[in-house]
Amino acid sequence: MVPVLAAGSAETALAFIEVGALIFGLGMLARLAGRLGITAVPLYLIAGLVFGEGGIVTLDVSEDFVSLAAEIGVLLLLFALGLEYSDVELREGLRTGIPPGLVDMFSSAGIGLALGLLLGWSPLAATLLAGVTWVSSSGVISKVLADLGRVGNRETKSVLNLLVIEDLAMAIYLPVVAAVIVGGTLTETLGSVAIALVVVTVILLAALRFGRGLSDQLGRGNDETLLLAVFGLVLLVAGIAQSFDVSGAIGAFLVGLALSGRTEERVLVLVSPLRDLFAATFFVFFTFQIDPRDLIGMLGWAVLLAFLTAAAKILTGWYAARRMEVGTRGRYRAGTVLIARGEFSIVIAALGVDLADGPELGALAAAYVLITAVLGPIATRYSDPMVGWFQRRGSKTELASATVS
Amino acid sequence: MTEVQETILPGVGVRHDFTTTEGRNMGVVVHHDGRREIVMYKDDDPDACSSIVSLNPTDTQTLGEILGVSVVAEVVSEVRQELAGFSLDWVELGDAAPGVGGTIGEGEYRSKTGASIIAVIRNARPLPSPGPDFTFFAGDIAIIVGSKDEVQQLRTTLCG
C-alpha cells in the first residue's frame, strides 16, 4: 500500500480537486432539486452521464476512491432502509400485505421480465430488469407522502405495507440473483443459491434473536463510539455476506433490521448524513459507466416501460387500498404514488454491469428511473383532480344518456 | 370514552383516529422521531386529511398540559359542586376578611354556621385538621365542608 500522506504529491492534490468538484457539484444539484420540489436522484444520474464515459469530463485518479465510495453508498442505503422498520412493523406488513404484494410482483416485475426477453436479452438480464421495474422507491415515496401531507391518509397504510413487502422480497431476490450472476454450471449455481439463502436466513434469525441485546450493547456508548461501531459492523457483515457471494447490501439491510428502539433512532440520525454523502456518489458512479448515446437509444423503450409499469402500479395500489376499504380517490392516490422508482432499481441494475446485456440494461434502467422518479410524484399530485374530472365527465355522460333515453 | 383506532404505519409511526361527538373525523399521527401531527379528515373524501398542525415533543407537552388541566379542572369543579349532598369549597381570606387575626375557636364557626374547616392552605402548604387555637393570616385558603347553605354562610362569615 502506498502511504498516502507521504505521497502528498500532485496526484493527491488532483484527487482532492476531482472529488471535491464532484461532491460540490452534487451539493448544488441537491439544492436545485429541493427548489424544484423533486428528489435529487434523477439529477445525480444526469450528472453521472455528463461527467462519465462518453461524457464531457472523465475522472482520472480518483476513480478507485469514487467506486469504493459508491459501494459503501449502496450498503448505507440498504442499512438505513432496514433501520426504518421495527419487527412489529414487519410482522404487520406481512400480515396484511401478501396479496397486494403478489399482484405487485406479477404485474410490475412481469412487465419488466417480458420486455427484457422481448429485447432478446439473456433470462438473467431480463430477471434483473424485472427487479428494476418491480420495486417502488421508498425514499421518493416517503418524501412525496410527507410533502403532500398524506401521511395521515387512510390509503397510506396500504402503500407503506406494500413497500415493506417489496423490501422483504428484495431480501430474497437480491442474494439469489447475485448468486446466479456468479454463475458456473447448473449444480454450482444451485449450490451458491442455496448458500445465499442459508446465509440470509442465518443473519435474519440472528438479527431477530440477538437484535435487542446488540442494540442495548451498542447503545451504551456515546455518539462517536456508536457511529464507529455501527459503521464498522455494517461493512463487516456486508463483507462476510459478499464473501459467500450473497449480496453485501442485503447483509447491511439485515443489520439495519436487527437494531431497535432508542439505539435505532440514534443510529438513524448519525448515519443519515453519511448515507446521503455516499449514496449520492453511488448514483453518480452508476451513470458514469453509461454512455449517454446508449441511454438515448434506450429512451423509447424506457418510456414504454414507464407507461406500462405505471399502469401496473396504479392497479396494485388501487387493489391494496380497496382491500382497506378506501374510496375511489384514495385508491388512485395509492396507485399513482407507487409509480416512482429509484434507489433500489439502480442497485439491482448495478448488479448486472458485467453481463453481456449489462450496458443496455444499465442505460434502460437509468432512463427508466429518470422518467418515473420525476413523473411519478407529479402524477400523484394531480391524481385527485384527474379522478374528479373523470368522475364528473362520467356522471355527465350518464346524465346525457339518461336525458336522451 | 370514544373508541380510538390505532394503525401502525411502517417506517413512519402510529396513527390514532376517532370521530368527535360532533361527528368529525380527526387523527393524530405519532412519528418515530416524536413529532405529532394533528389531522382532520375531509367531509367529501373521508380517506384524505388535511394537516392542522405539526408538533415537536415540547409542543406536544404544552398542548397536552393545556388540554389535560382544563379537563381536570372541570372534573374538580363538578366534584366540588355535589359531593353526595355535601359541598366542598375553598375560600381565600383577603387582607380585609373578618376572619383574619382570629382563631378558629374564637370564631365559633361550626356552631354558628354548621360547616367545618377541614384544612388550611398557607404558602402553598396544606395544614390539615386545624385546631381551635389556629389563627388565620391574610392569604390563607380555608377548605370547608358542609351543606350548600352552611358552606355559603361560613364563606360570608370568614370573608365578609
Summed up, what is this model?
Chain A is mainly α.
Order of SSEs of chain B, N→C?
EEEEEHEHHEEEH
C-alpha end-to-end distance of chain B = 43 Å
Low-confidence stretches of chain B: none
Number of strands of chain A: 0
Cα-atom radius of gyration of chain B: 25 Å
| Protein structure class of chain A | mainly alpha
What does this structure look like?
- The complex is a heterodimer of chains A (405) and B (160).
- Chain A has 405 residues and is mostly helical.
- Chain A has one domain (23-57, 77-387): Up-down Bundle (Na+/H+ antiporter like fold), CATH 1.20.1530.20.
- Chain A is 83% helix and 0% strand.
- Chain A is built from 17 helices and no strands.
- Chain A has helices spanning 4-7, 10-36, 41-51, 63-84, 87-118, 123-134, 138-147, 156-182, 186-219, 223-243, 248-258, 261-288, 292-323, 328-337, 343-351, 358-381, 383-404.
- Chain B is 29% helix and 34% strand.
- In chain B, the strands form 2 sheets. In chain B, strands 1-2-3-4-5 form a 5-stranded antiparallel sheet. A 4-stranded antiparallel sheet of chain B has the order 6-9-7-8.
- The mean pLDDT of chain B is 82.
- Chain B folds into 2 domains: 5-81; 87-159, Regulator of K+ conductance, C-terminal domain (Alpha-Beta Plaits), CATH 3.30.70.
- With 160 residues, chain B is an alpha+beta fold.
- Chains A and B meet through helix 5, helix 8 and helix 14 of A and strand 1, strand 3 and strand 5 of B.
Please render the helix and strand layout as text.
The complex is a heterodimer of chains A (about 400) and B (about 160).
Chain A: H1 4-7, H2 10-36, H3 41-51, H4 63-84, H5 87-118, H6 123-134, H7 138-147, H8 156-182, H9 186-219, H10 223-243, H11 248-258, H12 261-288, H13 292-323, H14 328-337, H15 343-351, H16 358-381, H17 383-404
Helix pairs in contact in A: 2-3, 3-12, 3-16, 4-11, 4-12, 5-6, 5-8, 5-13, 6-8, 6-15, 6-16, 8-9, 8-11, 8-13, 9-10, 9-11, 9-12, 10-11, 10-12, 13-14, 13-16, 14-16, 14-17, 15-16
Chain B: E1 5-9, E2 13-19, E3 25-31, E4 36-41, E5 49-55, H1 57-81, E6 87-92, H2 104-107, H3 109-113, E7 116-122, E8 125-128, E9 141-146, H4 148-159
Antiparallel strand pairs in B: 1-2, 2-3, 3-4, 4-5, 6-9, 7-8, 7-9
